[in-house]
Amino acid sequence: MSMHPHQPDSGESGHAGQRASQPGLSPGSQGYFPGQANPSWMGRVEPEYYRPAPGHAGAPLPSVGPALAGGGGPGGGMRSAGLALVVGGAALAFLSLFLVVPFLLANTGVSGFAVGFVVSLIPLTAVLLTVHAIDRWEPEPKRLLFFAFTWGAAVSVAVTLLIQPVFALTFQFSDVADLQTYMATVQAPVVEEFAKSLGLLVLLLLARKHFDGPVDGVVFAFTIAGGFAFTENILYFGRAIAESASPATDLAQIFLLRGVMSPFAHAIFTGTTGLIMGYAARRWHSGASVVAFFVGLLPAMILHNRWNSMGEGFLVEYIVIQVPIFVLAVVGVILLRVAEIRLTRQRLLEYSAAGWFSPAEVELLATPRGRRTALHWAAGYNRRPQMKSFLHAATQLAFIRQRILSGRDIGLHQAEEQHQLHRIVSLRAAVAG
Fold first, then answer.
1. Is 241 in the same domain as 352?
2. Which one, of 373, 413, 398, lies nearest residue 39 by Cα?
3. How many angstroms separate the CA atoms of 176 and 164, rounded?
């Protein structure tokens, strides 16, 4: 299959192409800032950072797919999260188990631990499937998601156990009536959210190229929180087995509360921190990341406190307060995904204006319906894996461009952009056959 040389789309991409071809324009010149450079509230670009996409020099690119000029190829992706992060995280998680596992066994016994572990897999599966759904558009590296989960399930729990006794000493200075209430409503929100979100700060500082914005912040936060809730559920479910005269009844009651009514509680708490840190990641520098970490802790701690403070009127507060918070979180995630899709489409249109894609291709590469069409077409030629790789590479390219336009490590990302553009050409050939 073949196609004519790419022509800029009418409207925005055409303007971008005209500006890209004008001589004498330099970054910072506002004469070539497209009106649609900011298609949504996510990842806004200032005129002084805007620059046209590099032009495609060479023969017309072959068209593949149903009006699609795209290609597939091996995954690869960005490798910025170094071996030190993965190995260091694994080592921390391993060491944490020497504190966490004995603590769990002491409180649940062997049989309680075993039952709690198995039952805790149910709410964990719900959280991880949600993470997968949110992360499908621009998937994070599996090694970083593994780091996030192990941080939540082991490291953050160990940090909580270490700080908890020290924090309990502050009870004498509080106005809370009893220690148990104080630990639930003050200590747990402060210490647990700090311990969980510390993993987000590590990811943002050491794997910053993969921490692109609020969607990534939510994905990493949900994964960390899912790990933490998994370990905490083992404790609660295991205690129901070990300490109750009617373990089956108590386990069912606790599972209803934690596994059915609130499997996403920790995810929503920590998700607010990830959301705020994700916004800070758009304009990268270490100071902003640390400030965002502390600012993001505040809503997480408040939400956590409100949940743990529900008492005799639990059911009413759950319906009136917690259910609307959950609905708001769902709506927020949907809006984030919509904004992410719009941003991807606009950045690929800018590459289209430079000759790398046709406007029709962009609609297939940067819209959910277009992607389904492209994958269905590729499946008919036994090239679905190659097409999936190409779609992933095109999305990565759009986000690389977003980092360049946000003024973040411009030279580094421009070199990565050139590498990714060469990958796009080879991946295209793999799909074209």
1. no
2. 398
3. 17
Q: In the structure encoding, which two tokens stand for residue 57, read together?
A: 């020099």
320-364 pLDDT, tens digit per residue, is: 999 999 999 999 999 999 999 999 999 999 999 888 988 888 999
In a shared domain, residues 167 and 57: no
What token pair was written down for 208? 């910053």
Q: Three-class SS of residue 272?
A: helix
Asked if 273 contacts 200 with a C-beta cutoff of 8 angstroms, the reply is yes
DSSP annotation string for 136-172: SSSPPPHHHHHHHHHIIIIIHHHHHHHHHHHHHGGGG
111-129 per-position pLDDT tens digit: 999 999 999 999 999 999 9
Q: Which residue has the tokens 């002084």?
A: 48
Cβ atoms of 356 and 6 within 8 Å: the answer is yes
Our count of domains for the chain comes to 2
pTM attached to this predicted model: 0.85
In this prediction, residues 162-184 reach a mean pLDDT of 87
Q: How confident is the model at residue 58 (pLDDT cuts 50, 70, 90)?
A: low
Q: What is the largest CA-CA distance in the chain?
A: 82
- Give the closest residue to 76 by CA, choosing from 432, 423, 428, 426: 423
* Residue 321 belongs to some domain of the structure: no
